[in-house]
């Protein structure tokens, strides 16, 4: 009964997201979603530039610009950007991935025009000079120290991606190399900005308590005169398939307990198989009753932590699992247990009951992912940017999940999760 009710609630709440979209003459794509349920608006800009667009000798640029473009503009003094946001009842942030950079502000809806002005200033004439570059270098260095260098297990992903995506721009992390940032000259930073942070490589997505016609006029007023940039060609990342198991060892001075890690190459986010692999990861480790948690933590008490996840990027992906042993359990024992559960999924269909539970989890995740205006703005922009300019993918994504079958999950396990197709990493304390 509980499973049925959860499923019913998910279907009932997952309403279609209505939107208007159009292009300005300079190539900026604009998406507007009206939600008058609360006097709040999210203003966002997604630039189609991430770490994969960087020169291998100058990694970290996209993430660096996530910080640098808060430095100010010709009309905003250094340090005033965030003060203007907070003084007007708003909040703001930004984030960078391998494939895009995303900036947003959330304001009371009567401050929509301020949000548009701030983002147009960021796009039109930010201040990029030696002072700002020097300040943000130190900010990024401190972030790397906190989030990577001194964080237990944080460098696992570095080792995994450098092996699974060897020879491609996905092999380095968005935070990049501090040496590269130190070596870069000012004209390299300005060149990177002029190439990628142009209206024809961006999506302006607005969600919230807005009047559509008035917003269209404001968008034209603030963004219409920004010059169009040169066409940005997005490279397709071609990954060389793993055909024999790769075994590697890495050391981390921040940990006391080792971990076993496995990773497989998978397709990019637009693939149907990417949906199946997300569901497959849920079967293995989504919740206390999932297969790996139940077997390795509850029953055998071999692991303190075990997880499987599917990461989908624009051109490729990775299915990753890891486990931390309980006591003196060997890493190979954990590896054997995880491998046996994957083989079980390759050989047998999951039960109808487990499949229904999986569908309910996926639907509730979808609903939660569109709960706030900023979420909706980001999801609309992502749909346009990564799904062949099909913004309505924000609505059809759930339909794609509902169309999945137990056979799709089994077939994905058979196609991608074989021992000879994986990287196995022994992540050990020390050094």
Automatic annotation (TrEMBL):
<feature type="coiled-coil region">
    <location>
        <begin position="328"/>
        <end position="379"/>
    </location>
</feature>
<dbReference type="Pfam" id="PF05193">
    <property type="entry name" value="Peptidase_M16_C"/>
</dbReference>
<dbReference type="InterPro" id="IPR011765">
    <property type="entry name" value="Pept_M16_N"/>
</dbReference>
<feature type="domain" description="Peptidase M16 C-terminal">
    <location>
        <begin position="186"/>
        <end position="361"/>
    </location>
</feature>
<dbReference type="InterPro" id="IPR050361">
    <property type="entry name" value="MPP/UQCRC_Complex"/>
</dbReference>
<comment type="similarity">
    <text>Belongs to the peptidase M16 family.</text>
</comment>
<dbReference type="Pfam" id="PF00675">
    <property type="entry name" value="Peptidase_M16"/>
</dbReference>
<feature type="domain" description="Peptidase M16 N-terminal">
    <location>
        <begin position="30"/>
        <end position="169"/>
    </location>
</feature>
<keyword id="KW-0175">Coiled coil</keyword>
<protein>
    <submittedName>
        <fullName>Insulinase family protein</fullName>
    </submittedName>
</protein>
<dbReference type="InterPro" id="IPR011249">
    <property type="entry name" value="Metalloenz_LuxS/M16"/>
</dbReference>
<dbReference type="InterPro" id="IPR007863">
    <property type="entry name" value="Peptidase_M16_C"/>
</dbReference>
């Amino acid at each position: 009964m509980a499973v049925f009710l959860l499923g019913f609630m998910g279907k009932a709440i997952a309403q279609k997201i209505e939107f208007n979209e159009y292009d300005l003459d300079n190539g900026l794509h604009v998406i507007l979603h009206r939600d008058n349920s609360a006097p709040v608006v999210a203003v966002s800009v997604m630039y189609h530039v991430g770490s994969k667009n960087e020169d291998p000798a100058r990694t970290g640029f996209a993430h660096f610009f996530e910080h640098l473009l808060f430095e100010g503009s010709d009309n905003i003094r250094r340090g005033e950007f965030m003060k203007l946001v907070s003084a007007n009842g708003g909040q703001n942030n930004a984030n960078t991935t391998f494939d895009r950079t995303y900036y947003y502000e959330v304001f009371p809806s009567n401050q929509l025009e301020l949000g548009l002005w701030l983002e147009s200033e960021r796009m039109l004439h930010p201040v990029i000079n030696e002072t700002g570059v020097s300040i943000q270098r130190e900010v990024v260095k401190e972030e790397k120290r906190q989030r990577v260098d001194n964080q237990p297990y944080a460098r696992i992903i570095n080792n995994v991606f450098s092996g699974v995506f060897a020879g491609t721009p996905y092999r380095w992390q968005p935070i990049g190399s501090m040496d590269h940032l130190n070596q870069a000259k000012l004209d390299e930073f300005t060149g990177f900005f002029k190439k990628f942070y142009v209206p024809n490589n961006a999506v302006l997505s607005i969600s919230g308590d807005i009047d559509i016609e008035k917003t269209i006029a404001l968008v034209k007023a603030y963004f219409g005169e920004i010059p169009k940039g040169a066409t940005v060609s997005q490279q397709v990342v071609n990954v060389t398939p793993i055909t024999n198991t790769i075994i590697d060892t890495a050391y981390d001075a921040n940990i006391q307990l080792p971990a076993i890690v496995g990773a497989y190459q998978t397709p990019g986010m637009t693939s149907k198989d990417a949906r199946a692999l997300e569901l497959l990861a849920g079967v293995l480790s989504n919740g206390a009753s999932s297969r790996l948690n139940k077997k390795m933590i509850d029953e055998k008490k071999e692991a303190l932590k075990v997880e499987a996840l599917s990461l989908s990027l624009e051109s490729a992906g990775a299915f990753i699992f890891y486990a931390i042993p309980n006591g003196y359990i060997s890493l190979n024992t954990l590896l054997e247990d995880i491998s046996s559960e994957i083989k079980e999924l390759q050989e047998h269909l999951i039960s109808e009951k487990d499949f229904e539970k999986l569908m309910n989890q996926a639907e509730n995740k979808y609903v939660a992912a569109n709960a706030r205006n900023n979420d909706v703005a980001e999801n609309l922009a992502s749909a346009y940017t990564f799904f062949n300019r099909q913004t309505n993918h924000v609505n059809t994504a759930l339909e794609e999940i509902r169309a999945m079958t137990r056979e799709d999950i089994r077939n994905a396990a058979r196609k991608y999760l074989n021992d000879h197709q994986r990287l196995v990493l022994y992540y050990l304390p020390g050094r």
